[in-house]
UniProtKB/TrEMBL annotation:
It comes from the Bacteria. This is Bifunctional glycosyltransferase family 2 protein/CDP-glycerol:glycerophosphate glycerophosphotransferase. Its main location: membrane. It holds the Pfam family Glyphos_transf. It is a peripheral membrane protein. Keywords: Cell membrane, Membrane, Teichoic acid biosynthesis, Transferase. Residues 5-169 form the Glycosyltransferase 2-like domain.
Length: 743
């Protein structure tokens, strides 16, 4: 039997769950088991648990067939626990390094107490760590083992279960279980602590308590569910009634009850306004029913609140609260004036447009910081024209990019009066990055964030850990993301990343990427047309080289000797170079350009057409590999600086170990791979197949239609996905040539 059993209830935490599990499996103490309870989670959490369980026998997964809530999910895990001690951990929190070893050592040193209480710290999205404000209560003063009566101040700790280790036979003897509903920790915590004969403390931070910016915390949820607190304290006092030997705790627990009721009343964002009076009256009734003989109210303002609750004086309480709010409003007046001044700086024209009604039939599109008409927004634009032609579609384009706007596309120049009028009044704003900080999100507007790739490199808040992000203002980033109503995803992997690194209150749409519909649905004629537009002759192999940006390089420095590579590949191969404009002044490279054996396609308007034209892709860390994998054509990863790139920028997986095909880390290796055709051999093909299954999950050729129907037409029922094995994809150039000749 394991020494420790860790019960981890899981529900809608796919973005945080791997970090939680890694913090457990990475402990230097190993005598434990994990009972992970999938509470019928609607996201990918259950699959993540199964993947971890397949790799580590210490993880036991329970998949519940219906959602039962946190308390009953813990009960399900508790029934399966086999350890001497049971610990609970919420699945978005983590253990600190060495926590389990410290807990096990303290248990042994104190002779196996019934409860061990340890410390925690709160962690925030910006990297801040705040210690427990009551941490001093855990200092080892006096006997190592004690009853609560010896240290009653421990009742003032936050009533949580996950900062304690409970001896399993103690749980069985007391019959403790978790009730349903909000605040389920209160009856378990109080009843266990007053019942324990032998307790101990560990003055060490063992749990890192994640403070999620959005979601995941019932205390930030406006709901009548907060009325559950009455049932929880009824259970506490029922327990006292059933155990007269514990009557000494009636007064202290009465105080905890009243303080908890007042907290629910006083904290904004919990009770609906229409329910506050009802809650107060119920709290007052509990006060009078459970008031212990001889109870002394606390002094000062807190005592006045106790008195108002005892008298059921709701009107008096609300009057006092209103007075406090008024004083606070006066103090904040100066700050509000400054805020209005800043808004005014945006421009009087924009301000006047913001006061006009929204145009329900206007959509504004932008892509890549308004540099082009492209990517997912362009694909959505085209599908919107087909399904909802009554909606006017306008593109925001920078002044220096206006010449590249396709003929017939309505556009406004960024910064112009027409631009500000459009973004002020449009019902829909669509972008694959963020609109500028000065764009105001109006009530009723719908912001659609399409993103522009599957992330290999770290994104959003995850970048805080790496040197390449020192210039970023993450608070401003999240303010921009707060405007999103919808966020697109092309695979479950991306969904989990986006929800963690952009913790805002948007709705995720797992639709696939609209820009990739073109790749899935392309015909042989589309392939031939794409190659002809580039001047590629029949029988010529085209290799598309797409390196990504490196933050640690001041400019674009090709990692390949392109002239040598072209020579080695021979006259029947053309290199298509896409990315930053590549520079080369040597006469040999100029001659290669003139001969057509190197084509700089960095300025090509549609990268999807380049994918169709290419026989294979050579890339390093670009998200191009995820899209190109849809074509099921060879991908060669050329990663000569993987160690530097992964250390400076950060990545979500090791590309050298989980590549979409063949890997080369030197130019000599790359030339050997290309010359031997090993890049298209059985091993590379097998890697590509696994990569496609993982990252081409939702791209079935109907992504744009899904988006338009959900966002613009308001249809709740999504189009079913075409099964992966039944999805079409474009023929290779050789196949396309054969098909066209047959036709």
């Amino acid at each position: 039997m394991p020494r420790l059993s860790l019960v981890v209830p899981v529900y809608k935490v796919q973005g945080y769950l791997p970090e939680c599990l890694d913090s457990l499996l990475g402990q230097d103490y190993t005598d434990f088991e994990i009972i992970a309870v999938d509470d019928c989670s609607p996201d990918g959490s259950g699959a993540i648990l199964d993947q971890y369980a397949a790799r580590d026998a210490r993880i036991h997964v329970i998949h519940l067939t219906e959602n039962v809530g946190l308390g009953r999910a813990r009960n399900a895990g508790l029934e399966r626990a086999q350890g001497d001690y049971v610990l609970f951990l919420d699945s978005d929190d983590t253990l600190s390094d060495g926590a389990l070893a410290a807990i096990a050592d303290r248990l042994e040193a104190t002779g196996d107490p019934e409860i061990l209480v340890y410390d925690y710290a709160r962690t925030y999205w910006d990297g801040e760590i705040r210690p427990n404000q009551r941490a001093e209560l855990l200092r080892s003063e006096g006997p190592d083992v004690f009853r609560l009566a010896d240290r009653p101040e421990l009742l003032n700790l936050l009533q949580i279960v996950w900062n304690k280790a409970y001896r399993r036979d103690f749980i069985a003897r007391t019959g403790l279980t978790f009730p349903p509903g909000y605040y389920e920790d209160a009856p378990w915590t109080f009843c266990s602590m007053i019942s324990a004969e032998r307790m101990a403390v560990l003055d060490r931070v063992c749990v890192l308590y994640r403070q999620r910016r959005e979601g995941g915390n019932i205390l930030k949820t406006v709901s009548r569910k907060h009325f559950d607190v009455f049932d929880q304290y009824r259970r506490v006092f029922d327990y006292l009634d059933a155990h007269p030997e514990l009557d000494e705790w009636r007064g202290p627990l009465f105080r905890k009850m009243v303080d908890h009721y007042l907290t629910v009343l006083e904290r904004p964002g919990r009770l609906p306004q229409s329910a506050r009076a009802e809650f107060f009256h119920r709290a007052s009734a509990d006060y009078r029913d459970r008031l212990p003989k001889g109870f002394q109210r606390p002094a000062g303002g807190r005592g006045h609140k106790y008195a108002m609750l005892e008298r059921d004086a709701y009107a008096t309480m609300t009057g006092a609260t209103a007075a406090v709010k008024f004083r606070r409003k006066v103090r904040n007046g100066a700050a509000a004036a400054i805020s209005r001044s800043k808004r005014g700086a945006v421009g009087m024209s924009y301000q006047s447009q913001l006061r006009l009604p929204l145009d329900e039939n206007l959509a504004v599109f932008s892509a890549y910081w308004s540099r082009s008409v492209s990517c997912n927004p362009a694909a959505i634009d085209a599908e919107l024209a087909r399904l909802a032609p009554g909606i006017r579609r306008v593109w925001a384009v920078r002044a220096d990019s206006v010449d590249g706007v396709p003929e017939g596309v309505e556009h406004v120049r960024v910064g112009s009066r027409a631009y500000w009028a459009a973004v002020a009044r449009a019902k829909y704003l669509v972008n694959n990055v963020n609109f500028a900080d000065t764009v105001v999100k109006r009530e009723g507007q719908i912001h659609l964030q399409t993103h522009h790739g599957t992330p290999l490199k770290t994104m959003g808040l995850d970048q805080q850990k790496y040197p390449a992000s020192t210039h970023m203002n993450f608070a401003k980033l999240l303010e921009r993301c707060d405007r999103w109503d919808f966020s697109l995803s092309s695979n479950s992997f991306s969904t989990a990343v986006w929800e963690r690194v952009y913790p805002c209150s948007y709705t995720t749409l797992e639709t696939g990427y609209p820009r990739n519909d073109f790749l899935v649905n392309a015909t042989a004629e589309d392939v031939r047309r794409a190659r002809a537009a580039l001047g590629l002759a029949d029988g010529t192999r085209a290799m598309l080289y797409m390196p990504t940006h490196r933050e640690y390089q001041p400019g674009f420095t090709p990692a390949l000797d392109l002239a040598r590579l072209a020579d080695e590949l021979g006259p029947d191969v053309t290199l298509l170079i896409r990315g930053h404009y590549f520079y080369g002044s040597s006469p040999h490279i100029a001659e290669l350009r003139r001969s057509g054996r190197i084509l700089d396609v960095s300025g090509h308007g549609r990268v999807e057409e380049l994918y169709l034209a290419a026989d294979a892709l050579i890339t390093d860390y670009s998200s191009a590999m995820f899209d190109y994998a849809l074509l099921d054509r060879p991908i060669i990863v050329y990663a000569p600086d993987w160690d530097i790139y992964s250390a400076v920028r950060g990545t979500y997986f090791n590309l050298l170990e989980e590549p979409p095909g063949a890997v080369a880390t030197t130019q000599a290796e790359l030339i050997r791979l290309l010359g031997s055709r090993e890049y298209d051999g059985p091993e590379a093909t097998e890697r590509r197949a696994g990569f496609r299954l993982r990252f081409c999950e939702f791209d079935d050729g109907h992504a744009a239609e899904r988006v338009v129907r959900r966002v613009f037409l308001g249809e709740e029922t999504a189009l079913p996905f075409v099964p992966f094995t039944e999805r079409p994809h474009a023929p290779t150039p050789d196949q396309a040539l054969e098909l066209v000749e047959r036709a």
